[in-house]
Amino acid sequence: MRVVLGVAGGIAAYKACSLLRLLAEAGHDVTVVPTAAALKFVGAPTWAALSGKPVSTDVWDNVHEVPHVRLGQEADLVIVAPATADLLARAATGQADDLLTNVLLTARCPVVLAPAMHTEMWDHAATQANVATLTERGVHVVPPASGRLTGKDTGPGRLPEPEELYAVCERELARSRSHDARATTAGSAPTRDLTGRHVVVSAGGTREPLDPVRYLGNRSSGKQGHALAVAAAARGARVTLVTSAKPDLPGVDVVHIETALQLRDAMHAAAADCDVVVMAAAVADFRPATYAPTKIKKTHESRPDGSADESAPTIELVRNPDILAELVARRGGAATPIIVGFAAETGDEDGSVLDHGRAKLERKGCDVLVVNEVGEGKTFGADDNTVTVLRRGSDAAVEVGPATKAVVSDAVWDVVVSLF
């Protein structure tokens, strides 16, 4: 496949060398288009040696080949890594003042931008507005990682690792082959199979407060739900993410919650006008019956006989609502929204993980159930996942993994799309 690798002028440009090598070793025909500023960080000889092709930043080079039009028209994928704040601004406003921005304007293939910059620049309202504009046009903006930046700075704005960006590229190329993303009219965004759909995703565990300091919770990190939201946005959906975590996901409307009751209210409100509901959150089954307005103290008083008081409070629990079952009941006999449930299961003497999953699918009445085994060192907090995707009314089961949660997300959306 023909890939254009754009490189903007940021210190993270050195990481693009590894991405170039991964793409080339996978057999892709890669053309590197750096900006003039990018060459301040990594020189043209490096890009030429790694790609095996001459490198140019200027629309006036090799004019007879019309590179400012040809590269974008012929590409199967354009990825810009790093995409600086300046590059995002120029792309969002349709500027064409160098070869790379010309390529972005002429591309009729999937476009991926991987921002990298200081946290203050990433958080600025102008940058976020530019990201929102690009996302609405169908550009896949990969959220920056959080970590060490230039100097001593730490925070959101770090370029994701080359292996992660390579995985994004491969998913986009596979989707392009499947859905013929290049068959679009001039000026329109690449075809996305969730375009025009409103998707609501829940993610993360809930926290049920016991007092101002303590709460009952679980090990869920929210990573799978967040990956589902990112994948849906990349496929063209308008996404509402209801989560207990604090993600930074461009192009996704985030609603923050903590408790199961807050999650319930937010999901019912968001699901009122959506096409798909994905209940990936790990909702606490129980919550404390009463909330102590002040911290519950340990007592150190001695009993009359002089012995220490080692007693502990007894916590009464009450059951939380079954949000998934409520959403199914609320839908009634309507065809939409399509409802996807998650079953975090452990096998026991009554059955295997898959046995419990099939029983839950029948009991809940949702359209799709994603079943995964959980436990120490499994799923929670990990970057990989292994799942089985079940459909109501079908004995077929889609096995996915071990794979990244991004790959799992695309597999889930493939099943959902087949139900429309």
UniProtKB/TrEMBL annotation:
Name the Enzyme Commission number(s) assigned to this protein. 4.1.1.36, 6.3.2.5
Q: Which UniProt keywords apply?
A: Decarboxylase, Flavoprotein, FMN, Ligase, Lyase, Magnesium, Metal-binding, Multifunctional enzyme
Q: Where is this region: Phosphopantothenoylcysteine decarboxylase?
A: 1-198
Q: Which Gene3D superfamilies match?
A: CoaB-like, Flavin prenyltransferase-like
GO terms under cellular component? phosphopantothenoylcysteine decarboxylase complex
- What NCBIfam families does the record tag this protein with? coaBC_dfp
* Family (UniProt): In the C-terminal section; belongs to the PPC synthetase family.
Name assigned to this protein: Coenzyme A biosynthesis bifunctional protein CoaBC
Native species of this protein?
Knoellia sinensis KCTC 19936
Organism lineage reads as: Bacteria, Bacillati, Actinomycetota, Actinomycetes, Micrococcales
Per UniProt, what is the name of the gene that codes for the protein in this document?
coaBC
